[in-house]
Amino acid sequence: MVRPVSFTINGEPVRVTTDEDRMLLWVLRYDLGLTGTKFGCGEGLCGACSVIVGTEAVRSCSTKVKDIEGKQVLTIEGLSQDGHLHPLQGAFLERHAFQCGYCTSGMIVNAYALLLKKPRPTREEVVKAMDDNLCRCGSHTRILEAIDAAAAAMSGGVR
Amino acid sequence: MNGEGNLSRREFLSLAGASGLYVFFRIEDLLAQEPARLGGRPGYPTDFNAYLRIGEDGRTTCLVGKVELGQGAMTSLAQLLAEELDVPFGSVDMVMGDTDLCPWDMGTFGSLSIRQFGPVLRSAAAEARAVLLQLGAERLQVPPDRLQVKDGVISKLGDPGTHITYAQLVQGRRIERHLEKVPVKPPKEFRVVGRAAARKDALEKVTGRARYAADIGLPGTLHARIVRPPAHGATLKDADTDRVANVPGATVIRDGDLIAVLHECPDLADRALALVKAQFDRPAPAVDDATIFGHLLKNAPAAQTLGESGNLEEGEKSAAAVFDRTYLNSYVAHTPMETHSALARIENGKVTVWASTQTPFGIKAQVAQALGFPPEKVRIITPYVGGGFGGKSASRQAIEAARLARITGRPVQVVFDRAEEFFYDTFRPAAVVKIRSGLTSAGKIAFWDFKVLCAGEREAKHFYDIPNQRTVSAGGWQGGQPTGLHPFAVGPWRAPSVNTNTFARESQIDIMAAKAGSDPLQFRLSHVSDPRMVRVLKAAAEAFRWTPKPAPSGRGFGVACATYLGTYVATFAEVAVDRATGRVRVSRVVCAQDMGLVVNPDGARQQTEGAIAMGLGYALTEEVRFRGGEVLTRNFDTYEVPRFSWLPTIETVLIENPDTPASGCGEPPIVCMGAVVANAIHDATGARLFQLPMTPARIKAALRT
């Protein structure tokens, strides 16, 4: 059914009139022009489309837009503020924790959700939280190190 | 532009040469890279202006036909330019893979960006620097040998006040003077090359601002989803598209074999596609993933001898033990995280395609042919590419988008879903390697008879000291396969041929080392005389803290070594095998490489780490399932790629060898992964695996024998 659906995107309220059964990924990318969130597999298997809804990382390719009504959605575009990179972004940048960069938004967003819950996770906890986010270039080691570094830098929790 | 008037280009150049030495840099000049390559075979232009442009703002634009796939060419090529031109690395802006702006290039594959194109770019920049120095000398009225260049500023030695910048000299114009045979810098003078550099793509990639082909938005774009056959070889019988009208805004285009459903939203195009009822005639499946190896043995093309020496018969007579082994590997997919994507727009008779591709100039020709356009009416722009690994050499999506854009008169985007990505992938071919070899009673290799079917001949020849030997290859990953040999397309997959050839060779070497009762490292060293190979083996062994012991030692240690187009690589690994489940955990990998000159050590480390991670996939899990031309592997639930929890600790050793030309590192560090894991599994358990991937089922079966 086509109807207006309201939610908050990166702190800004939006109202999108669309088919409520559409997946959030496509509304983000094409209706709202937020192309930092990527399509990878379409079935929630790779994590490239990860966004934060409330405080949880979700797979936007498999999340209907009606299910986020009234909720707060955060995408990679909303992480840096006032021209400053989020510590996770800074750590990924400094450590070159990416190659092709296609999975990177999903990685950073998923790690962001982890650090919301667990500001100083152990390596095992990071691996477990990130294990369903796929990277084909093999940046895994650097991504884990970047998350550790960001957690240490934030050392009190996410802003 | 300014002053050119009606003068012919030649007249104008001679006037310019007499006065200001250069003409204004016009956009048409940039767009006119085409004529230089119209005469016969394309090649790299000899005019350095094709590769670089010094802006009035002091920034230097570097134009290359290579693309950024994640491998870091954007950064390492900028380092080469900055080094030879003597400009700050941070002032170099890269323009890559745009067929109108950039000089021709064959494509970004084969670890060639640094090895083959690097010298071209370095020479161009070195010549430009020499010309600029000459111009500066004339302007400052100081002999060139009393000038120095640093960070784009030419100044008088001992008198820094007497100076002029490149930007002031050039003033945004094209440099028309040329010099012959300008030498590049010797490595000892390097200031930028050989050091870690901040990746040029970093900020865009961590902020989500990096644009890939699917991210290019043009007003009025239609998104196409295309009716695909259920299997390769299937032919369309009938298609009922009536129900597409149930999705408001969806339209159907039929153009010969191409049936597409278009919508302004890609997901709604997808929804409409699901309503198309298409019927296909399917040939009976001739082969599947279980019967493929017998099929290849029966149908492989004629074999060619790549090399032989000594006498195999004599060698066999001198052998105390003979080993006759067959090695198999399955079809492997590329599965870049970004699926094949393209956006095509036609305006004023010219088509522009933004495409995820490793071969922008190759698909330019294909799009021109598909549309019947002259080549100068086709422009391919390559934004960031989300991984290639050889799989984005084929770019069917670009042609489909262009055809649909012409029919609809609107920009059309084609983005493969994951099932299409698997279906149209050009897989690494399934292959068979047969090796017959023997050992003397003294533990030396007496003979070696190596035959590879369908993997390809690259690095099939070994580098060991063996008196009697032959290497034979039949078929490969390139074109020219007999019809029906493979049920779908095959093509280059990161280090084509070499993963297969190395797996077989290094497994066989290990088998002989074990039979000889030798430590596998010592056995290799006793058969290798190339000092570069000796060096990487010893360097990796030291980093691994290898202690000699014949396999199986129970430790789970493996070693393998290889050459790849000039790069030497030795890889050591430690594994643990769960005998109950057949699961393997690779806990540690050390990889040493001698790639000659290392342009960007951090980039080389990244490539090595990535190759080791990726290599775990083809070693342990990656295998395309199929029944005839039907590809049963459609997403990541049925095709397991490496994950965080698989990752070993990785140590990379880069041998210092700057006086040897760079030989590249995007591919070499992956080639040992199958063999090193197989050898480590044997060392842990005594079980020998002859087939890749080494799945838990295959490991359990090997443990039972």
Topology of helices and strands:
The complex is a heterodimer of chains A (159) and B (705).
Chain A lengths: L1 E8 L2 E8 L4 H8 L18 E4 L2 E4 L12 E3 L12 H8 L9 H14 L5 H8 L9 H15 L5
Parallel strand pairs in A: 1-5
Antiparallel strand pairs in A: 1-2, 3-4, 3-5
Helix pairs in contact in A: 2-5
Chain B lengths: L8 H10 L3 E3 L2 H5 L20 E3 L5 E5 L8 H13 L6 E5 L15 H29 L6 E4 L2 E4 L2 E7 H5 L2 E3 L26 H6 L14 E5 L8 E6 L10 E5 L2 E6 L2 H8 L3 E5 L10 H8 L4 E6 L2 H6 L3 E9 L11 E7 L2 E6 L4 H12 L6 E4 L14 H13 L3 E4 L2 H6 L7 E9 L5 E9 L14 E7 L23 H19 L3 H6 L5 H14 L12 E8 L2 E12 L4 E12 L6 H20 L5 E2 L2 E2 L17 E6 L18 H13 L5 E2 L3 H9 L1
Parallel strand pairs in B: 3-4, 9-19, 15-29, 17-18, 21-22, 25-28
Antiparallel strand pairs in B: 1-8, 2-3, 5-6, 6-7, 9-12, 10-13, 11-12, 14-22, 15-20, 16-17, 16-19, 20-21, 23-24, 24-25, 26-27
Helix pairs in contact in B: 3-4, 10-11, 13-17, 16-17
Description of the structure:
The complex is a heterodimer of chains A (159) and B (705). Chain A is α+β, with helices and mostly antiparallel strands and 159 residues long. Chain A folds into 2 domains: 2-78, Beta-grasp domain (Ubiquitin-like (UB roll)), CATH 3.10.20; 87-154, DNA polymerase, domain 1, CATH 1.10.150. Chain A is 33% helix and 17% strand. Chain A has a 5-stranded mixed beta sheet with strand order 2-1-5-3-4, sandwiched between helices. In chain A, helix 2 (87-94) crosses helix 5 (140-154). The mean pLDDT of chain A is 96. With 705 residues, chain B is α+β, with helices and mostly antiparallel strands. Chain B folds into 3 domains: 9-207, Aldehyde Oxidoreductase, domain 4; 213-282 and 340-415, Aldehyde Oxidoreductase, domain 4; 292-332 and 427-704, 2-Layer Sandwich (Aldehyde Oxidoreductase, domain 4). Chain B contains 18 helices and 29 strands. In chain B, the strands form 8 sheets. A 7-stranded mixed beta sheet of chain B has the order 11-12-9-19-16-17-18, sandwiched between helices. A 6-stranded mixed beta sheet of chain B has the order 14-22-21-20-15-29, with helices on both faces. Chain B has a 4-stranded mixed beta sheet with strand order 23-24-25-28. The longest helix of chain B is centred in the N-terminal third of the chain and has 29 residues, at 112-140. The chains are: A alpha+beta (159), B alpha+beta (705).
